[in-house]
Amino acid sequence: GAVVSQHPSWVICKSGTSVKIECRSLDFQATTMFWYRQFPKQSLMLMATSNEGSKATYEQGVEKDKFLINHASLTLSTLTVTSAHPEDSSFYICSASQGMGEKLFFGSGTQLSVL
Amino acid sequence: AQSVTQLGSHVSVSEGALVLLRCNYSSSVPPYLFWYVQYPNQGLQLLLKYTSAATLVKGINGFEAEFKKSETSFHLTKPSAHMSDAAEYFCAVSNQGGKLIFGQGTELSVKP
């Protein structure tokens, strides 16, 4: 079956630094990728939708200058948390799709802890 | 607009007992509906999905869900709970564009 690899699975960083999270579709071309954030004991909240080769579409309330999303190829999307602060500590999950209406595949998630 | 409501943030059952996790949705267009399971510190695994075919959907690990349009529900069931079923379960709705709206999640505990 299709696999989505997300890396790193766990990252600890100092406040003010930037962290990059990668999401790769290993055996299919992902025209669309989604980034979610999940706080402890809460549901997943969609942050943004990215389509290969175009700018990401951010959900209301998500700062696009803070959460930089790049989807430069059909197999890779990256989320960069810039100038991270402790309140950015969360579980970030990506998902990938081959296209509208196609099945979604989720990465295993990245636990970000900002000290 | 679409939304999902999961009734009960925590459900506890005994091993071997029926599992029933409730999900109601709201959608202005014919929805796609999903159930996902999440184990601690892991991503989501698709249990099953409804995409306008059969209203009774069978998924992995013995789970199934029934789409009831009149009740706007998509409850998840399993006849006999196993200890390994203990996890967080999320119901989600989509408008076929791939963008999922998740419910708040239900934590399932299974007692021996």
* Alpha plus pi helix count of chain B: 0
Q: Which regions of chain A contain 5 or more consecutive residues with pLDDT less than 50?
A: none
The major sheet of chain A is characterized as:
7 strands, mixed
Largest interface: A-B, 25 and 19 residues
Write down the secondary-structure element order of chain B: EEEEEEEEEEE
End-to-end distance of chain A: 37 Å
Distance between the termini of chain B: 41 Å
Structural class by sheet pairing and helices of chain B? mainly beta
Oligomer: heterodimer
Number of helices of chain A: 0
Secondary-structure element string of chain A? EEEEEEEEEEE
Specify the overall morphology of chain A. Answer: globular
Number of strands of chain A: 11
| Strand residue content of chain B | over 45%
Poorly predicted residue ranges of chain B: none
Largest β-sheet summary of chain B: 6 strands, mixed
Assign an overall shape of chain B: globular
Class computed from helices, strands and strand pairing of chain A: mainly beta
β-strand amount of chain A: over 45%
Overall residue-averaged pLDDT value of chain A? 89
